[in-house]
From TrEMBL:
Family: Belongs to the TRAPP small subunits family. BET3 subfamily.
Gene Ontology CC: one annotated term: TRAPPI protein complex
Subunit structure: Part of the multisubunit TRAPP (transport protein particle) complex.
Protein name per its UniProtKB record: Trafficking protein particle complex subunit
Polar residues composition-biased segments: 28-41
One Gene Ontology term from the biological process aspect of the record: endoplasmic reticulum to Golgi vesicle-mediated transport
Entry keyword set: Endoplasmic reticulum, ER-Golgi transport, Golgi apparatus, Transport
Region (Disordered): 21-49
Listed Pfam families: TRAPP
InterPro entries from the UniProt entry: NO_sig/Golgi_transp_ligand-bd (IPR024096), TRAPP-I_su5 (IPR016696), TRAPP_component (IPR007194)
Record localization: Endoplasmic reticulum; Golgi apparatus, cis-Golgi network
């Protein structure tokens, strides 16, 4: 069974910032590192990940590269990363997962699980950025404002743009839809005919589900391809709320 095919473009998501280094002069290596070479003055001595010792005469200079945990989250929130690099990475994720599943449904469930793990971390970093830059941070307690936050703030954090629309099901009160006419995550994916029912946006659905759970709006979120003549990649993220959310919304409505 032939898997999805990928091409390249650009996408605004998370990225890395330039790394800096700190010099600690006058530090000698411990005895466990071995003796310093006598005939290779100035030659770097590898110590471990992110750390090197450079010998210069009788002094040894230690250079340590900052890790990703040392970076300021606010300085990297608007940076860009190549969509080509993202496409290669996501291609490997899909192919790795595809080899370990029995069908399309199982593949989408696993992509959803992977997206859920990413979503919980994105929510944490986004909330931290909001609280650190806002004097009076606000936590949404009603579902519709939280859904609007996902439609705008979260989508811009992920894809550099807002989603195209939000709709409510006319048949079921517990179903809402976030619509993206051109989702960057699937823009460079070509689905074979025998896998036409597959939606790799299940990864995005997992992210949304994790965010809703973190905001105390438990729901089941799935992705569905709804192509149109004008938007062949149009995707609907279907949110089916837990009954407890509807009961709480009703109680808050009556209380107000």
């Amino acid at each position: 069974m032939q898997g999805p095919v990928y091409t390249h473009s650009r996408l605004s998501v998370f990225s890395t910032s330039s790394q800096s280094s700190v010099d600690l002069a006058g530090t000698r290596p411990s005895s466990s590192l071995g003796s310093r070479p006598t005939s290779t003055v100035g030659r770097p001595i590898s110590v471990g990940t992110g750390t090197t010792l450079a010998s210069s005469g009788s002094n040894v200079v230690t250079k340590r590269t900052n890790t990703i945990y040392d970076r300021n989250l606010n300085k990297t929130r608007l940076a860009e990363v190549s969509l080509g690099a993202w496409s290669f990475m996501f291609s490997e994720v899909v192919q790795y997962t595809q080899k370990r599943v029995a069908g399309i449904g199982d593949l989408e469930r696993r992509l959803n699980t992977l997206g859920y793990r990413v979503g919980s971390r994105i929510l944490e970093s986004t909330v931290w950025r909001t609280e650190s830059t806002t004097k009076a941070p606000k936590r949404e307690t009603r579902f519709l404002p939280a859904l609007m936050w996902i439609h705008t703030v979260l989508w811009r954090q992920l894809f550099g743009k807002s989603a195209d629309a939000i709709e409510k099901s006319v048949e079921n009160d517990d179903e809402y839809m976030v619509i993206d006419n051109d989702p960057p995550i699937t823009r460079n994916i070509s689905i074979p005919k025998e896998m036409s029912q597959l939606s790799c946006s299940a990864f995005t659905a997992g992210i949304v589900e994790a965010v809703l759970d973190g905001l105390c709006f438990p729901a089941r979120v799935t992705a569905h391809s709804v192509p149109t003549e004008q938007h062949p990649l149009r995707t609907t993220i279907l949110i089916k709320l837990d009954r407890s959310v509807l009961e709480r919304e009703e109680a808050l409505k009556q209380g107000s």
